[in-house]
């Protein structure tokens, strides 16, 4: 906003010039009062002309009322007010002859538009707004507008001229321009003085005039209904008959007296210190009242009255207690009369201000229905025979299947929606970001302690090689250790002589995400799990590609004992896959494994080497079977015998006596007293659980492995109970003389956790074929070398089978690589 001020400077010692007073342009900050200190001089302006109020427009001299354009930013477009307005182009050529001014050419020509606007009035009941219909007149001679509202009888509002005839500015940000003919059209909304007018139609002259100027006019738009007028129409409609509803409660009482509908229900109150309450709901047909009683379960700890809800009408939505006299069957407008004898009153047929309360009826009570009992959700589960017959005859319902009642909190389904978390921002781990989003105070992520206790020191180790374009990296050997307690990985490199690599820790213990996932996502990333690792798999670990080539004995045994987690060690699934692949190629498979033995059905045992068995399966199935699945089959049908037990009764007894002598244990009488306490009837045999508890409770100096070996060699009965006398004689140092044992750490020699087994190098081919159960269809031929082993295409007698001890060194080297 520019303010013009005249300043008369007084200069001392100088001659006054003729141009003694100058006009300076002062800049005023919008929104600030006109006070000293808020005005600033525009130093960039050097020309100070007087403002012009007259202009020559299209050859006519007239008073110019154009406002100065507001200052805008540099680079933006500013309208030059010195240029006359340019009208819309017309589809008709200009007429020949002298051009007349608009006030003469468009004299007495007015465009009329029908419009409406909505006005909100809080005083009107049941009406959010009023629809006021107006007419917009546009005078072509000078571009002025006038808005007029036709008068409506009994409208209750002031009507007539809404906007006087004047030129109207456009809405911001185009408030430096006036509204023209282009801004008005059907089905458009215009803003005039902060009020929205929606144009719905125009008169025929306006439509023809705009069409001749090349402006398309849409079809008329229907105006919305006025809710106030609709309400008045409904109120003015005449009503016939008695306006007071008739209700005969006594007739209902005589018809349905002593008829009660009984329902079995429950209230799920499983909050803190809560439980599931079993209820009995009684509905009285005589007066439509409901009574609810609670059924206390025996030994539930609840006593006292069983009334859950006293008899009364139950409202669907409870809004509070009603005041006295607020709920009446009718509303009295006024009472006429001087005494109580001659009294007349007028009844309000509309019941103004009376809110209808909806109560539960018998049609609302069904199996599975949820009843709102003053904020408590009661679920109906079952009906008695009388109630079933009532609903069957009146409503035609045939299905009365009862619903189960949840007994524990685990049985109730959780309907809570999943919490939406913001995407991961890259700081810390995903669990750290989730913890910061859930609570205001940052807390470290919680680990699964139960899983840690269950799988502590459970480590799966796999031998792997790196796949790389560098030849030196392909010869490196790694050991991948997977920790089951927290699903973490650790990679160690085995040092190879003259390889150039020192070996040692290649990657620290951490959790790795599966490749191909979006890093900055709201969903929790998927990590490597134990079933992702098997012999023959290729995986990307921190941009390094590893190929698993082997696994240690503990890993193979663990995977075989948990086939539901590791599908590549599930022999049943693998046999089904092999059976479907060898359905029509059985002869080719047998010929590849045993090329010189044709009559296998008469053989008792036929053995095949691991290499021949693996080559035959891969030649037929190809990539359909993995190396780990072949290893699982060979170990399952292995022809090698397991290693015998590492200890016997005398060895275990010597180890037990050594521990008793080393700790100077002499509490044998206390152990006998403990057995008499837990066995007052002096039973000769006790369960293993009680014997183990007694040994550990009396603090015998035995390790857990030694206790397991002692209990495994004691005498037992047909119920697998342990003899107490045999145990007492076993630990009695003075009874008999056992073999002495060197005082060394004999835990591994006596109780090995994982016995060394050589399984899978030789396959019992006969057992495999018997389990496969497919016809052989072999060509006829003579028998050769009964009970032989096919190894590398060469038939060998059973005496030439590789010995376990002979190959122990090779197996040690393989375990060292793994």
UniProtKB/TrEMBL annotation:
Record region (Disordered): 220-244, 788-818
Keyword Ubl conjugation attached: no
Source taxon at top rank: Eukaryota
Keywords: Cell projection, Cytoplasm, Cytoskeleton, Repeat
Basic and acidic residues bias: start-end ranges: 804-818
The keyword Cytoplasm belongs to this UniProt entry's keyword annotation: yes
Locations listed in the record: Cytoplasm, Cytoskeleton, Cilium axoneme
Pfam families (UniProt xref): DM10_dom
GO cellular component term of the entry, any: axoneme
Domain DM10: residue ranges: 107-214, 257-395, 456-563
Main location: cytoplasm
Annotated protein name in UniProt: FI06517p
Gene that produces this protein: CG8959-RA
